[in-house]
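task queued by scheduler; priority normal; single chain, no ligands, no partner chains; default sampling; output format set to structure tokens
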Amino acid sequence: MPKAREEPTPKSNAGPNTQLRADMLKGNALNSAWRLSYIANFFAVPFYLALDHHLGISRGEYVILFCVAQHPGTTAQDIVAASGRPKNSISVAVAKLEHKRLIVRKRNKDDARRMELRATAAGLSVYRKVVPLLKARERRMLAPLAASERRQFDALLLKVANRVPDWQEPDLGSLAGARRI
């Protein structure tokens, strides 16, 4: 595989800390993790703040709606496992979506302990309005990559994502004797 060429640091209107941004992206003690976090934050945070402002749907609520619209009958526990979002935020978001009548909760006919989530017609309408906006945002995010690079990037992300269970629990054993600050 040919070595990737280093892209020039683009000019930004991000404010006075553009040099720190450039320096951190160029190299730091955690290059890959920092870059993934940086990209994820700038992809998600502004979008979900705007979505909340325009539709009154939070990030946590849309994560649930996104999962439920694609997998009707899934549970809140399934969404926690699939999304990595905390249980309490999923629980709160489920209640809010129910209150907004965007999802309904129903007992599974085979296992009464299992509460299935389904999008209502109104919930599906919101989902269908937002997905094209996210797809367009994703296209803009990936625009610097050639089609073959996008396919490779997607395959590499999937490879890393599939291994999350191997490292998701933080190993802080070396801090066992450290004093809490």
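post-processing summary
- The longest strand covers residues 103-107.
- The mean pLDDT is 90.
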